[in-house]
Amino acid sequence: MSCLQGYAYTTFDYLVENLGQPRTEGLDKSTAEWDQTSFYVYDWKLEETPKGLHYWHIGGESKQALKDFTDTTGIPTVDNIGGRLSAIL
């Protein structure tokens, strides 16, 4: 089962540049979502899609999702917003 694994501090434009256009229709609790094979990226319970720097949620079935996200985008991840850089980087 997929769930939140960590966060990536980046911009919407950088995600689009690296992952393409997000899905924006039919979403329940987010305004933008990128669904990749081993991870997904989304905002959470916001009224508008954040365009500036933002802690984007990284979801997946394990912490491997964070490594896969970083390998794909070059963006480091954190385990929690107040936390340290992920040890799997």
Question: Could you characterize the architecture of this molecule?
Answer:
The chain has about 90 residues and is α+β, with helices and mostly antiparallel strands. It has one domain (about 5-75). Helices cover about 20% and strands about 25% of the residues. It has helices spanning about 10-20, 65-75, and strands at about 5-10, 35, 40, 55-60. The longest helix has 10 residues, at about 65-75. The two termini are about 25 Å apart. The relative contact order is 0.28.
What count of helical segments does DSSP give?
2
What proportion strand? 15-25%
Order of helices and strands: EHEEEH
Helix content: 10-25%
- Sketch the major β-sheet: 4 strands, antiparallel
Please state the CA-atom Rg, rounded to the nearest Å.
12 Å
* Average predicted local confidence, pLDDT: 90
- Strands of the widest sheet, in order across it, are 1-4-3-2
Distance linking N and C termini: 23 Å
Tell me the number of structural domains: 1
